Amino acid sequence: MLIQYILILAVVLLVIFFLRHHGTSRSGAMVKLGFALFLVFGVVAVIAPNQVSRLASLVGVGRGTDLVLYAMVVAFGFATINTYLRFKELELRYARLARAIALRSAESPEPADTENDGTLH
Amino acid sequence: MGDQRDVWLVVPVYNEAPVIADVIRDVRATFPNVVCVDDGSKDRSAEQIRLSGAHLVRHPVNLGQGAALQTGIDYARSQPGAQFFVTFDADGQHQVKDVEKMVERLRHEPLDIVLGTRFHGDTDHIPFLKRFVLKTVVLLSPALRKLKLTDAHNGLRAFNRTVAEGMNITLNGMGHASQIVERIANEEWRVAEEPVTILYTEYSLSKGQSLINGVNILFDALLRTNARR
After folding, report:
1. Confidence check on the interface: ipTM exceeds 0.95, yes or no
2. How far is B221 from chain A (nearest CA, A)?
3. B167-192 per-position pLDDT tens digit
4. Which of A82, A98, B54, B75 is the most exposed place for a label (fewest CB within 10 A)?
5. Is A84 an interface residue toward B (CB < 8 Å)?
6. Under 8 Å between Cβ of A22 and A59
């Protein structure tokens, strides 16, 4: 069925592109576009469900609702991965911030500890 | 082995107040320059570190061992005269003798980084399950196999300035070990392994990371983006 090829190919391409360009404004814009398209698709599905059924049979899916379901699963997968990646990147920036603070107040040991035993002589 | 003042030990510390002062004093008998990174400990580790004669850098919050190592490396590489760097555990599992051997090799052999390995010769003292998991991780990691490394997760590493300046650990947690190995492969640093002894005391075993954390490490390694430097 056509839908299988479309879905698998789309997912693979998107994952590769996503992971390589995550965090760039270009991919950010694409994600927003994708989200907008998804919303449009949702509105159309509600207003004209027979169109969705037509589209579904075109790609080899039984019902319109099944097509919506597949689209949702893919969208959900991306939303999850995107959230995870955003978190990881935030974590890194936060770590760098904490590091800068830590290094600013670094403490050298007491210079008079010549015997290296932790006491001053 | 002579003057070791050009060697800096980096020790990430998290809640090791009972042992850290003894560990550091023992190390400083041979290597005077040590920086401990207190990763937001809830106990009196910082106090103990001050008493031991090491340099102290404190994270304002807990970030993870990877982040603590990177902070320590940042600090050490900015110290005048620092030529060699060693990552060393705070819990007494590592042996100073092994560090001496590894630094000697760095001084005299054409190497950028020496990694400790538990899997040379007598490995009977390593808990079986740990041995099994570590060997599995080696099998699953292309970088480890390409470099022919035998120990996936050894905290004892010695390296020179080239590596220290190129070191950029971005995985804050335990995934940093795989990240370092990958970096060695990508940057083509000259690497060798040195058999080391890890002392599994009751204290250190009680603090070891649970094996199920391996799932987190693997996940982090697989799902990584090109985080900007």
Report:
1. no
2. 12
3. 999 988 888 998 999 899 999 999 99
4. A82
5. yes
6. no
